[in-house]
Amino acid sequence: MSAAVVPDHPWLLPGALTPEARASRRTPRDWLVDTVAFLLAVGWALLAFGDATSPDPQFAHNAGPSWLVGVDLAAGLGYCAALWLRRRWPVGLAVAGLPLALFSVTAGLALLVVVFTVLVHRPLPIGAALVGFHLAVIPVYTVVRPDPTLPYWATVAWTVMFVGIVVAWALFVRARRQLVLSLRERAHRAEAEQQLRVDQARQLERTRIAREMHDVLAHRISLLSLHAGALEFRPDAPPQEVARAAGVIRGSAHAALQDLREVIGVLRADTADGDAAPERPQPTLADVPELVAESRAAGVRVTLVDEVAEPTRVPTAVGRSAYRIVQEGLTNARKHAPDTTVGVRLAGGPGRELAVEIRNPWPVGTSAPALPGAGTGLVGIAERVTLAGGRLTHGRDGATGDFRLAARLPWPA
Fold first, then answer.
1. Which pLDDT value is given to residue 15?
2. What distance lies between CA 117 and its chain's CA centroid?
3. What is the 3-state secondary structure (H, E, C) of 343-362?
4. Which of 179, 281, 295, 348 satisfies CB 3.0 to 4.6 Å to 300 for a cystine?
5. What's this model's pTM, rounded to 2 decimal places?
C-alpha cells in the first residue's frame, strides 16, 4: 500500500508503524471504541461471575471447584484490562489468551474482541489459525463449564454461532477498510499521475520552445559572425560598408539577446502564469523570402525558386516546419560553406507533398575559419520532420557532389 496513506490510517495497516508510533496516533474514535470494548468486557465478566456464584441452579453454571471461580474472575478481569494493549500487540494478546479459552467464562467477550482485532488488522492466515483454535476447544470448554439449561450439542452450536458472527463481522470490517484504503490510494495515485502529466506537458513545451530558439539563435549568430568576419578580413573597407556591417551586427546581437532572454524566461518559469506567457508570432512559409533576403543582405549568395501552388493554403504547422528547414540549411551553409552559392527550392500543392530543398556546392577551401556548431541542428530538424509525418534526407549528392538538405512534408488536400 502507499506509504503516503498509512500515516492517516495507522490501524488499517498495523505493523507499518512502530508500536510507539501507533500508540501515540490513537484517535478520539479509537479511545471511544477501546473504552466501550473494555466496559462491555468487564460487564460481561461481572455478569458471568454473578451467574457462576448464583444459588439458583436455573442460572448458575457448573463452576466446579470454588477456587476455579476465583481464578476465572481474576483471569477474566486481567484479560479485560489487557484489552488496552490489543492495538499494539494483538497477536501476542491472542496467544496469551489461548489457555483461557479452555475454561474461562468471564474472559469470553474479551477473547472475542481480541479475535476480532486480529482478523481485522493482521494477515488472514494468523486470524484463521486463531479462529480454528477457538473452534477446536469449544467442545473441551463445554465439558469443563457446561450450561445446565442447554444440552451439550446445543451449547456447542450456540458458541460456534457466536464465534461465526464475530468472524463474519470482522471480515466485513476488514474488507471495508481495505476498500477505503484502496480508493484513497487510487485517488492519491491519480492526483500524482495528473501532476506528472502536467509536468511532462510543461517540459515538452519548454523543449519545443528551446528547439525553436536554437534555430533562431543559430541563424542570427551566424549572420553576426559573418559580418564580424568581413570586418576582420577587410579593415580597409569604405566607411559606409563598415557602418552597414556594424549596424547589422548590432541588430543581430540585439535580436539574439532578446530571443535568449525570452527562452531563458520560459525555461525558468515554474508556475502556470509563466507558462501562459504569450509567445511571439511563429514564422510561416510566407516568411521564407524575407529569410532569404536577410541572408543576401549579409553577403550570402542565395537563389530562391518558389514553385508552391496556392501558398495561402499551406497548413500553419507545415509552413513553420518548412521555414525552419530553410533556416537551418542557410545557417549550415554560412557555417561550413561561406563562399558558395546556396540554392533554395520550394514546390508542392494541396493534396501533394511540400518539397523543401537547400543545395550548395561542397566547399573546397574557405577564406574564413568555420563557425562552431554542436551538430544538433539537423537532429532537431529530423525530429521536426518525423513528427510532421514527413521524410528528411541530407548529405552529399552522389551525382553532383553538392551538399543537399531535402525534406518532404505532407500537405493534405
1. 40
2. 35
3. EEEEEECCCCEEEEEEEECC
4. 295
5. 0.45
